[in-house]
């Protein structure tokens, strides 16, 4: 591909990087600002628990309890949870440098996913299992894995009651989708391994008590809707 064409496909990094960083911090501030408080979040969490029991998918408690006698697994899942978000900038940089033709669309999918999350957090605040499900052990806080003890303390700029949808699952699903879509033509079999990442994340958020199964489904759905909307808009604008 000619160098000039690559430059046209890539947004200028000195505009792109500050905008993405500012957007991420603004996303966090808006999430914190729409925090409606504990009563509503706990009530919604109890509704989710009842729904999961009805559907026979209430697996958070047994999964969490199964971890407690295994310190290695506790620390492995704790570090995975805290560090998995770093995959997002890594994938963005990789796309920017090696797949410039796909970067813009995939970055837009990520941005739309985060925008769609905000009304969910406002309309349906939800306390995570570690706060609202009886018997769940918040072992990341107990072992203070990467300063996780502080994650139980309310503080300005942080919304602890925004478990619906699971953005950890949404972000890693986006990573899986981005890597899969970038590699599937040249290495179709290898590209399938990209989906292992969000699957592991889904398991980790359950065993650590951060999310319900319903939150995971909502996170994946969020990415799916974002992909659909982005594809639809691009088709209409290019028609």
TrEMBL record:
CDD domains: PAP2_Aur1_like. Pfam families: PAP2_3. Its main location: membrane. It is found in: Membrane. Keywords: Membrane, Transmembrane, Transmembrane helix. It is a multi-pass membrane protein. The chain crosses the membrane at residues 12-34, 79-97, 109-125, 160-180, 192-210, 216-233. GO terms for cellular component: membrane. Residues 48-228 form the Inositolphosphotransferase Aur1/Ipt1 domain. This is Membrane-associated phospholipid phosphatase. The lineage of its organism: Bacteria, Bacillati, Actinomycetota, Actinomycetes, Pseudonocardiales.
